[in-house]
Fold these 4 entries.
Entry 1:
Amino acid sequence: MSSILFFVTVFVAVFSVLNPIGAIPTLMALTENYTPAERKRVIKRSITIAGGVVIAFMFIGIYIFSVLGINLSDFEVAGGILLFKVAFDMLQGKTSNTKMTSAEEQDTISREAVGVVPLGMPLLAGPGTITTTMIYFNLTSNSLGDKMFVLLAVILTLIAAFVILRFSTILFKRLGKTGSLVISRIMGLLLAAIGIGFISHGIFGIYQQLV
């Protein structure tokens, strides 16, 4: 796979699982009575938290695996199943409970706290996002350049998510909840295919180890 194709693949995967467009209805509901300045602060905080969590796990996740004795191929299979679950929920037009539970959605202590929970995590930086970035970043076939492409894809996705959420009011009026769900379902289909790819690649890796 060429570097450019790899970068595009990673960007599409991370953008699909992070799903900022699908997060718009939740953002609008949680910040309904907020001023524009308050909503902007919430969005900044959510992107900062999501970015910090995802990038941290990209770099240290593999060392956690080493301590726990987890093989990357095993994680690819488990991660692929998780992504398929998230994708299936997206295709059904609902937020996956692997990303956010109803209790987390209601647990908003202060106006800016929603930027941390539930928007920052687990809605944006949920298990699916963390899993996807960790797998791509730590592929054994990756060169240093490929790792930088993964990091760049994550950063560009976070920037795109910030822009989308920043103009969420305008987008929500244009798209409505139905439009957001349609786009989420399209991304869910892409994510399902990526999840299957992770599973098949992980199974092949396990088979090579056994042989």
Entry 2:
Amino acid sequence: MNLLLLQNATDIMTKEALLYLGGALLGIIVLYGLISTILRNFGKNPKYLLPEKSFRKIALPLLLLFVSFLIRMRSLRELIGLQEAEFWFKKISVVLFIVAMTWIVIAILKISKHIIIQNYDVTQADNLRARKIYTQFNILERIAIFIIIIIALGFVLMSFEEIREIGISVFASAGVAGIIIGFSAQKFIGTILAGIQIAIAQPIKLDDVVIVEGEWGRIEEITLTYVVVKIWDKRRLIVPTPYFIENPFQNWTKTSADILGTVFLYTDYDVPFNKLREELTRILENTPLWDRQVNVLQVTDSKAEYVEIRALMSAKDSPTAWDLRVHVREHLIAYLQQNYPQSIARTRVLLQDKKEKKIE
């Protein structure tokens, strides 16, 4: 009789556990589907700010969050016969919850960044503001993710009483060690702070044209610890972030992308300067490389053997300015060769005959 009552009680408890667990699963499925539908509809509707496919970024961490709630349920432990493992189930649930929430926060951070920067196009000719926004948000995003992960890791460790006690005792008895570690990490901390300073002050931005260590290139990537400069010949120069705070360097696109280009010619004194000016204007007006802002030809120096002529022109950016300089130099030299070959700089040697005196 007692066995029968015990069996009946067990059956009732099992049915209740199945009922609770089934209700929880049904609620999770309904809630998951509702969130999925809402986010997907927002992503498809252009009047909402939420980017399309945003749900994909939070689907997995959201599922992990629901699993953490399921693991914590007593009904699940009763069904699988692990009531005595309640402590470990709760710890696993807490860890999964922290990981899922961290994942969701990072995903929301990335979605928010995408919402902001999608209004700025770095492919435009005048993309100064867009490059500022991209640089700031890329660096600040990495900083925020780093801080979020550190905080989440701290919460995970603090959820275990044993680890928390060990950590408190270690920190309480390791003051000198902490100072030593602090000095050892000084360079690393300085590098991180330099990355933050670049994000705020912006001495460089993504796609800026710079000359670093004698190399001409563009800023391809900015991280908390290093900057990647894409050299014109497709090499990559990896530079620590403190370099751009502590050392002088050239930034050709700090305030705008347009730039002046120069071409130097060395000719004879009899060269017709006005004809050269007319030819320079003709060359510039017949090329799309010129932005029609600056067109100057000046004599900038004179030596015994030659005169120095400088042609000054403008272009929308530095790569275009380089192509324009090459184009103008070639056509001006060809113009001199065809029309004034005698005006090309040359070295003159004067020979005099000396009559020998006859000695009688």
Entry 3:
Amino acid sequence: MSNFNKNIPYNDLPLLPPKSNLETTNILRKTIKASRALANLNGAIINLPNPQLFLDTIHLQEAKASSEIENIITTNDELYQSVVADKKFKNPAAKEVISYKNALWNGLKQLDARPSITTNLCIDIMRRIKENTSSVRTTSGTTLSNTNGEVIYTPPSGEDVIREKLSNFEKFINEDDSLDPLIKMALMHYQFEAIHPFSDGNGRTGRILLLLYLKMEKLLDVPAIYLSEYIIQNKAEYYKRLRFVTEKEDWESWVLYMLDMIEITAQNGLFRLKAILVLMQKMSYEIKSELPKIYTKNLIEIIFKLPYTKRQNLIDEGFGTPKTVGNYLMALENKGFLKSVKVGKEKLYLNHRLMEILERNKDDETQHYV
């Protein structure tokens, strides 16, 4: 058993890989199912005419869910209006979600330049999430408590100790090929959260690393998946399973939880993608029939890139003068395709049917698209 005591810094946190058997029959079976679901989603994304089209929306939805786990709550309306409108919102939650999305986007860009997950990359992600210049924790006294305020875990303490654990973490991710990548992903996520290297932003940094890792391992060419949505829906279980690794060295139930997350999230992602594509085809047909003079494939893509759009988006795409594009948007609103909303002095146009798909919960989704 581990010599773990929740009240003292866990400087004895074992290095990766663990000594436990990580290839039990249950784990291997579940790995196959999770890999298959991920491959199906990946195939569907690669075959899209424009795989980048929905990325902004998907990354913002992931950012919103990941921030919600930390009790940073914003609505889809507040979030997308903040992104599209020039008026910078006073809503601090929307601002934090957008910082998270930027951190994810920058992480993906860095991964393209250098396909490895490093301590420096982790620090960079955290700094972008928190919009500060802090680094690895140097002060002692960090503890993690439950909702009743009881200490449940004291992470390793001392910069040297933390950096040594991170160095092992980095080496394990980039050099150890002895395990299936999805099993590795579960181990790296536990380890990062257990090291808890920063004063703040560890959970969100850890969840961004999951998406970067899937891309790095070429399991998802375009990281179009909302992993955090699953954690929100199974939050108590997530923290319980993490704790059981620390307290009981129960790796199996943790790895199974993470594989479940991948399988279910990939399936939901595929349902949602299909729903958006069906809607896109339907609206293309309807707009072409009812407004043939303004219909173009490019116009459809603009109103599906994010749920909200505005005149400037159409001007930037070469659709004409402010007056011309204003007439286009008004025509789309008059026919019920878009709904206008005043945000500050700007008028935004909402693709309300697209927003409905984003707001739909997974149970509805399964009924509609299985």
Entry 4:
Amino acid sequence: MPELRFDPNLDGTELRIGLVVSRFNPEITEALEEACLSELYACGVLSEDVVCVSVPGALEIPLALEQLAETGQFDALVALGAVIRGETYHFELVCQESAAGVSRVGQEFHIPVANAILTTETDAQAEERAPVKGREAAQVAVEMANLLLAIDAQLGEDNDPD
């Protein structure tokens, strides 16, 4: 069998993307959302093909992602949030549980989920990273949605020679 290669594809036309945005640390999450939406539109995703939902905090993001994934209407999902270290162990708990939940949704529903839940030591770090991570999350969502579609088109059951 000749080599089959799937190159990165950031063409978002005809993709439907769902965003879940935490309202905790709103200055940060609003910057994440703004950067993510700007990049999605730059990739060709239409505004009518983007659904944004907000949740109280990072721990609620996985459940909302799961609900969106269950609809079967999305090519990719994006998690946007900010967890900034405090003086208690709660930081570690929220970071670990939200990341595990986001990963679980992607694997359980076989849908790309870009995780842009920032976990930083300080507000300044979060403020600095928000625009970059918001853009990167959009790119990851588009690229991974296209990759899965391309794999299905080239190697899916309908293309099985048997």
